[in-house]
Design goal:
Alpha-Beta Plaits, elongated
Amino acid sequence: MDKCLLIEKFLFKKDLPYQKLEGKTFEDVELARYIITAPDDLAPNIIDSLSKIVNTKQRDIFITTNKIDATVSEYLHDLVGKIKKPKKIPQVVEELIPQTEPFVHFKKDLLIMIMISTVIASAGLYMNSPAVVIGAMLISPLIDPLTVFSFNAAIGRPEKMLRSFVSGFVLIVTVVAVSSTVSLIAIQFVELPITHEIETKTSPSPVDVILGILLGVAAGIAMVSIIPGILGVAIAAALVPPATVIGIGLALFNFDIFSGSLLLHRQM
């Protein structure tokens, strides 16, 4: 009858109404029958939990379900009202570590993606098109190594922090190198204008500092929430355009553009 105690403990914990009928089999074996009334939303969970308590492989132990057409019970009505989607429990460090491990080491796929993102960003800057620049932000893979770097710095894992830092540094250098190369090639065929989009990335202001702080806060919240996509956009918005303009400044031998975008990149 120890199983009965476990069943009743489970039903009590769930606040489920039940009736218990006791009897014996033909072989004089004691049996207990539980009649449980529960909302449809709870039925799968109840069946699964009871299946773990009792061994349904035995001949006299089984679980049956019947759908009731109508039940008059204020108690069950109130119980249905209490059934809500479980709140998402904030992730703890142990749960976040496995998510960051795959991005500790540098990956060639990230290099390819950052090169494509930089080419698109360069085109958007020269076209003076914010939409194209935003498109480059969306596909930028800077989220992975920089998030891992911040996470490992926060929990004190210097080795993995260093590896992710190197990975992120390589990606940022790649942005500068690719944008510079694209500009050097393009300038051989067309005159490259200094557009408003480029100029805005060379003039650091207090607003940029505030933006960087807000993006960092948003990224931290996104990391432990159900909206992780924001994190990539936040990091890309802070780093990809200024890094691309650094490369443009180098290619055009324009110190003002280079120094201004470098300062903005450091602030972000």
